Structures are given as C-alpha cells and as structure tokens.
Automatic annotation (TrEMBL), chain B:
This is ABC transporter permease. It is found in: Cell membrane. The chain crosses the membrane at residues 12-32, 52-75, 110-130, 137-158, 186-210, 239-257. GO terms for molecular function: transmembrane transporter activity. Its main location: membrane. It is a multi-pass membrane protein. Keywords: Cell membrane, Membrane, Transmembrane, Transmembrane helix. It comes from Brevibacillus borstelensis AK1.
C-alpha cells in the first residue's frame, strides 16, 4: 500500500546545532504511528517541519506520493495535515460548534449559518464517535472535551493526517482511556494519526508502529507487536535503566502537620485539608492539575496567605510565616514551574544556585558573599548530578540549559539545603528519562536518610514509584488516602476523577 | 575571554545608538546649512576642547551621574522610580536650609547639609515606595506625580518664607550660603567640584554592593524574576523600600552638591530647567543600569549638552541639536525595550508550545 505521508532524509540545522539529522518517517493510511524520544531528541523540530512552521535544511516531504513544500501551516492544512497542539487554541466564549468551524464557516449570502455549523459538527462527531455537546460554551467544557473540540476542528478542516502533540499530558486517567479509544476509531475510519508522546504505556496501547528518536536521529522504527515498553525506553535513552534503591522501613516522628488548612480567594481553593508527613516518609499527592495542589504548596511554603488552619513544621507553628522564616525552620522546595518560580533565566547558573544561600553565615564574611567558597559547592552539585552547563560552565545563562539540566540544578540546590522537609512539586515534569532517574534516586536517598518529602505530581507512575502514602486531591479537598500497598493506578484514577474508593479509610465526606 | 566578549556585546547597542544619533544630528545640521564636520568639531571642542571645557563637562555630568546611579539601583530591583526630579529638589532645598540656618561651624554644617540632602531625598522617595507597599499605588505613577509636589513646594519655600530679600530684584531664591559650607572646587577657577568625586565613589560602591553583598544579589534577582526571589525568601517589600531610599538619597545628593558646589543657594528652576533628572534617567537606560556604565553614559550625555552650547556659540546651528540627538537615543532605547519584550514573549510562547 502506498504511504500517505513520507518524510525522507529530513535534516534541520540551527547554526552548528543539528536538531534533526537525516530523519525518515512514513505513515500509512489508517495507521497510528507514535514518535517517542526524550526532550531535545528532535520530535518538535520534525513536526514543525511537517506543519510548515520550519523550513528543512535538507530532505523532502511527500503526501500521497506527491512531493510537497510547505511554506506555512496553511499549506500543510490544505494538504490534509492537522495539528492538535498541546495547548489548546480555542475561544472560551464561543460555542463548541463555532470553535470547530472557525475559519471555514458555512455561509449563505455572506452570513454565518449557525444551524448548519451545529449540524455539520453533530454529524462529524457521530461519524468519528467523538462525543461533544456542540452548543456548549468552550469555557464550560472540561479539558478532555476541549481536546475533542480541537480534534474535531482538524477533522472539519479535512485533515487525513492528524498530529497529536503530547495529548495526554493534561488529561485525567479516565480521559486518557477515552482519548486512546478515539485515536483507534480515527484510525479504523481511515485517518492516519501521528502521536507524539513520552508515555510508553500509551504507545504500547494504541500505536501500530513506533519511531524512536534520540539526539536528532532515528534509532529505530518498530511495530508494536515486536517490542515492549522496556525496549523502547532503552532505545530512547541508549542504555539500560537503573533500578531504584530499596526503601528502608522507617517509623519516624511527625515532621509536617497540616490541620484544617483552608485557602480562599474569591472561591475556596484548598478546602479543609489535614494530613501529616513523617520523618523517613514520602507522601505523594496525586490529582489532576488545578485541583488545589499548587495553592496548597504555596500556602505551606509561605507564598500564599492561609485563610484558616494550622501548619506545624517539627514543633514550630509556621502558619502564615514569611518564606524566609519557613525555609529557616527547615523546609526546602522544588517548585512546580521551574521557569516561573525556580530560576531567573537570564542570570548565570551560579547566581541561580545561590538563591536561598545568599544570607547563610557559612557563605558570608563581613557582609560579603563568599563567592569562591560557594562556587566549590556548586561545582560539586554539577558533578554529582551530571548537570550539563554549556561552554561558559557556571557563568552560562540558566535559560540556555535544557529543561532536564535546569531541573537537576534546582533539585541539587534544594537538596543542598539539607532540611528535614522537602517539598517536591512535579520534580520531573518535562525532563528526560536520564534526569528523572537521577532525581528519583536522590529523593529516595533523602527519604532513607530519615527526612520527609511531600511529593506532588500529576504523573501517577511517579507517585506510585516513590510514595509511602498517597493522598488524592480533588477540588481542593483530600478525596482519599491510600497506603503504598493498597494503591493501584485504578483506585487513584477513580479518586482523581471525583469518585470514591470503597473501603478507603479516609475518603472525603 | 568570554567575559570580554560579553562586555563588547553590551557596548554595541549604546554605541550604535550614539552613532545613529549623530547621523540624525547631521541631517539637522545639513538642513540648517552648516558644515557637518565643522559643527561636530565645534561640538567636540565645546565638550572637551580645553581644560576649562572638559571640567565644565565633568561638572555638568556630576548630578546626572548621581541621579543615574540611584536610578540604576532601583531599576536593577525592577522598581520604576520616576521621581528623581522631586527627590533631587527635596534633597537640595532641605540641605540648603540646613546649610543656611544650622548653628554650627562651617565644616560641620557642610557635612550636616550633605547628610540632610541624602536623607530628605531618600525619605521622599521612600514615601512613594511606602504608598505602593501599603496601598498598592503604582510606584511609576506616584513617584512621577510626587515630582510636582516637591518642585512646586520648594518653589513656594524660596519665593515666600525663605526668599532672599537682600537683593534689589526679588528673585525666587534663598540667600547666599556662607563660604565655609561651599564644596571645594577640584581645580582653581574651574567649575567641577568635589561632588564629582562623590559620584565616582558612589559608582564604585554600587558596583561593589550589587556584585558582592547579599542585598545586591537580592536586588538583582528581584529585578530578574520577582517570583523566583519570593520563592527564595527574599523580602520584596524590604528590598524595594531600601532600593527606593538609596535611589532617592543619591538624587537628593545630586541636588545638594549642585547647591553646595555650584549655585551656593537654592535657585528656583536651577535644578529642573537643565533636566538633570531626565538626563540621568537616560544615562541609566543607555547603560542598561550598570553602575560603571552610568559613569560613561552620563559623561557622554553631559558632553553632548556642553558641546551643543559650544556649537551654538560658534555656528548657526541651535542648541536644540543636542535635544535632537538625545531624542534619537531615547527612541533607540525604547526600541530596544520593546524588542526585548517582544523577544521574551516569543520565547515564552515557544517554550509553552515546544515542550514535546
């Protein structure tokens, strides 16, 4: 059978840097072809060239056997290529139908035909079995529904090749299931799907073939039946994965105690949350992003006002204290958003490392920061965590580090504080497998040393791999608590979606 | 090597701005019908042509530099202090009154006047900072509006209660200060005074503080990313208020040394008409808030002004030539700001979409 899409010898160079090196890729009719690879492996560049957003340095693209050149996304759309971006581009105040037909509205005598639009969307949704309510406003739709709107939009535009860019990152586990089903339906009805992801389980569930990229090159294209998740991971990383160290059983004293914590700002963001973290324990907070986890952490770390309730760190009441005071009391914090909270991108690696240490007596003499003494410490971190800093080393701008290396720097900085409690929020979001191993290992070692960690993550695998106890947050509340032994992906998924687990001891009232 | 490269890179933009400014000036000169080369030669002579002119340029650069340095500290912290003029005037009038009426020996009076100038300018500036910290009144606006309050109030003081009534013409000015409180001139008969040394010392001090002290680090990081600073435990309000105080204090010192070093009395308009404050702002922006850079950019801008006076004396090209060149510089600076902003925005976009 003829290939619907062929990309041959795609190469993209930015100056000295080769983002894509002779990448070839084919896509058949009715096929789901996953592209996997770590950050910086070249997935984005390849897709940007396919969608006409970048011009290839070399290589050619053929659609249905005919060579094409895309000068912009419009060209790509005209040739039946549709892209569903990771961040949706929808008008919240318009209805679902209006968002789908936008740019290609059914018209009569220059007037927009609202009814026709709705019925066209209706039939499209039935044909591909993508359930939506075409008259609902987008602002009232869930994230999963919004994603379906985006998919219908590219179908409406006549796409035969649908590119899904990390589509499951923002979804609940149940929504992920639905999406994977939708992808299968699309393929069965003759559409071709390119799935860009780093979640190998999803790949194994839905893809027909998988192309693995590493360092801008293809390390292999395999069909799903001939591979498994471990093989794919090896192909992505280029080596065997390490096993995490065993966890020592520790029965520690309570370290962080949160009692009846409320955060309100117009509406209730954190609703009567009570829990504790003990020495030698990792407590994981699972939940779909936006269910109060960020606000909870900000309240605990002093970045946000506590409306009601108490927070004790050790014996000390730290409710409503300043950030500096809480840090002083024994808290370090890997922030959720490393660019917003965790770094100053235009400052050097060294300056970024100094944050939180600038007033420590051991690095100060007569009011002057002892730069050279501190620099030696940073050198140690760089070595221990294998942080690739670039040509200027510690003087390199932090913004020039890759996401994974920057995250390792942040992790090193916060671990270096040697505090009894560490708050780790999305510690491996958007970092590659190598960096993830480092970070997980470091967290586990800290736990085994008798320190407490509060881990917040929207990745269930991370929560399950690290936590001794798991709390699930839903709409600002703790919806349930599970021990390590009783926790399963299914049970957590149900709680994350607002359900309750039968037999769970402390489900929300 | 890399550091040198970095420095050169940071110099390219101001130099380019100056060159384009001079080219635009050339158009103006051509329009007036004078020789371009000849006019710029006159300008060079007017600014640096003799020891006298050179020292006049240094004298003119003194308040610009002090104000620019103060602003560079505030801008580094991400605090947009636009109140340098009011802070300068507040410092100057307070220092003048102390120098006139404090019953103490001359030298003590001089030191007291200097300290008063710094404190008064600093407190006036702190007031705007307090309004933001306490009532969330935008500092950009409050500091700008407080200029009018300060300048007009000082104008009232010298035209009513503290006016010099001894002269025949009733000018809006205070009586003359006694000689013992005058700041010494650096060279006999030349206009540059000890205030210039204060400015150089302040530049070194600010450079040192930003580079080596925890406070300087916090100022810098607050300006780079306020969220990151808060996360790291930096007390934003304290850093902002401290920054505002010293920023205003240096502006106050600028006004004070003008009074004690050149006018020897507070004369209504003598500080505001030469636009010291706004030129200082420009010096800071042109130097990208680098304290050592401010030394050079304020010399440059002062030279442009004294040079233009030379041009006016000796050719038909009017004094406004300097304003034209300055206007182009401002355009360039704002273009750079918009460009940076634009680039940042695009980068942010790319990041949020490119997380594949």
């Amino acid at each position: 059978m003829e290939n619907r899409l062929e990309m041959r010898g795609m190469t993209k160079r930015y100056g000295d840097f080769t983002a894509n090196d002779n990448v070839s890729f084919t896509l058949k009719e009715g096929e789901v072809h996953a592209i996997v690879g770590e950050n910086g492996a070249g997935k984005t560049t390849l897709m940007r060239m396919l969608y006409g957003m970048e011009q290839p340095t070399a290589g050619e693209i053929a659609v249905n056997g005919k060579p094409v050149v895309f000068r912009g996304p419009e060209d790509a759309i005209r040739h039946g290529i549709g892209m569903v971006h990771q961040h949706f581009m929808l008008f919240p105040d318009f209805t679902v139908a209006e968002n789908i037909v936008i740019g290609y509205e059914p018209q009569s005598k220059g007037l927009f035909q609202r009814k026709e639009a709705a019925s066209a969307v209706r039939s499209l949704s039935e044909r591909y079995r993508i359930p939506i309510n075409e008259n609902a406003k987008v602002s009232s739709c869930s994230v999963g529904e919004q994603q379906r709107v985006e998919i219908l939009k590219v179908l409406y535009q006549g796409a035969d090749i649908i590119v899904l860019d990390e589509p499951t990152a923002v979804l609940t586990p149940l929504e992920v299931k639905e999406l994977l089903q939708t992808i299968r339906h699309l393929a069965e009805s003759g559409k071709s799907v390119i799935l860009i992801t780093h979640k190998l389980q999803e790949v194994m569930e839905v893809a027909d073939r998988v192309t693995v990229l590493r360092g801008g090159r293809v390390t292999g294209t395999v069909s799903r039946s001939e591979t498994n998740a471990d093989d794919l991971a090896r192909m992505m990383v280029g080596r065997e994965l390490q096993q995490l160290t065993d966890r020592v059983r520790l029965e520690g004293k309570p370290l962080l105690r949160v009692q009846g914590l409320n955060v309100r700002e117009k509406q209730t963001l954190v609703d009567d949350v009570t829990f504790s973290v003990h020495h030698g324990e990792i407590v994981g907070i699972a939940g779909v992003s936006g269910n109060g986890q960020s606000e909870l952490l900000e309240a605990l770390t002093g970045l946000r006002a506590v409306s009601e309730g108490k927070v004790y760190l050790g014996e000390k009441d730290v409710t409503g204290q300043s950030v500096a005071a809480i840090r002083e009391a024994g808290l370090a914090h890997i922030p959720e958003d490393r660019y917003l909270w965790g770094t100053a991108k235009r400052e050097s690696v060294e300056e970024n490392a100094l944050m939180g240490y600038q007033r420590k007596p051991e690095y100060m003499r007569r009011g002057v920061v002892l730069r050279s003494k501190f620099r030696r410490v940073v050198e140690e971190w760089v070595e221990r965590f294998a942080i690739k800093t670039g040509s200027l080393h510690l003087k390199e701008q932090a913004g020039n580090l890759s996401g994974g290396n920057l995250q390792k720097l942040i992790v090193a900085r916060e671990l270096g504080q040697n505090t009894p409690l560490l708050i780790a929020a999305e510690p491996t979001r958007g970092v590659d497998i190598g960096a993830m191993e480092y970070i997980h290992q470091a967290l586990l070692e800290k736990r085994n040393n008798g320190d407490g960690i509060l881990l917040v993550s929207s990745e269930l695998t991370e929560i399950l791999a690290l936590s001794d106890r798991i709390l699930v947050m839903y709409k600002g509340r703790i919806a349930g608590e599970l021990t390590r032994s009783e926790a399963t992906e299914e049970k957590i998924s149900v709680l994350m979606a607002g359900g309750s687990v039968y037999g769970s001891s402390q489900a929300a009232m | 090597m890399a550091a040198v490269k970095q420095l050169c890179k940071s110099l390219v933009q101001p130099l380019l701005a100056v060159i384009i400014g001079l080219l635009t000036g050339a158009l103006v000169i051509a329009a007036v019908g004078e020789s371009i080369i000849g006019t710029y030669q006159e300008m060079w002579k007017g600014a640096f042509g003799s020891f006298y002119f050179l020292t006049s340029t240094l004298a003119r650069a003194t308040p610009i530099m002090l104000i620019g340095l103060g602003l560079s500290l505030a801008f580094r912290a991400g605090v947009f202090n636009l109140g340098a003029e009011g802070q300068m005037v507040t410092g100057a009038i307070s220092a003048t009154l102390v120098a006139l009426y404090l019953p103490a020996p001359g030298f003590v009076k001089m030191v007291a006047a200097l300290v008063t100038g710094v404190l008064a300018g600093g407190l006036w500036s702190l007031f705007a900072g307090y309004l933001e910290a306490r009532f969330r009144i935008q500092l950009l606006i409050s500091s700008l509006l407080l200029n009018y309050v300060a300048v007009l109030f000082a104008g009232y003081l010298v035209s009513e209660p503290f006016q010099d009534k001894t002269g025949s013409a009733a000018m809006a000015q205070t009586p003359m200060l006694e000689k013992s409180v005058w700041l010494p001139k650096l060279f006999a008969g030349m206009s540059v005074h000890a205030g210039f040394l204060f400015a150089l010392a302040a530049a070194l001090l600010i450079f040192f503080v930003i580079r080596y002290t925890p406070f300087g680090y916090e100022v810098k990081m607050l300006g780079q990313n306020p969220f990151f600073s808060r996360y790291g435990g930096v007390n934003r309000v304290r850093v902002m208020l401290t920054g505002m105080f010293f920023s205003g204090g240096l502006a106050g010192l600028a006004g004070t040394v003008e009074v004690l070093g050149s006018h020897y009395r507070y004369v209504e308009g003598a500080l505001t008409l030469p636009n010291f404050a706004w030129t200082g702002l420009m010096a800071t922006l042109l130097a990208n808030s680098h304290p050592i850079g401010v030394v050079f950019t304020s010399l440059l801008l002062a030279a442009l002004q004294t040079g233009a006076m030379g041009v006016e004396r000796n050719t038909d090209v009017p004094l406004e030539l300097a304003s034209v060149i300055q206007a182009v510089l401002i355009l360039f600076i704002s273009a750079k700001f918009s460009y940076d902003w634009w680039k940042n925005r695009n980068n942010k976009r790319r990041e949020s979409h490119g997380a594949v």
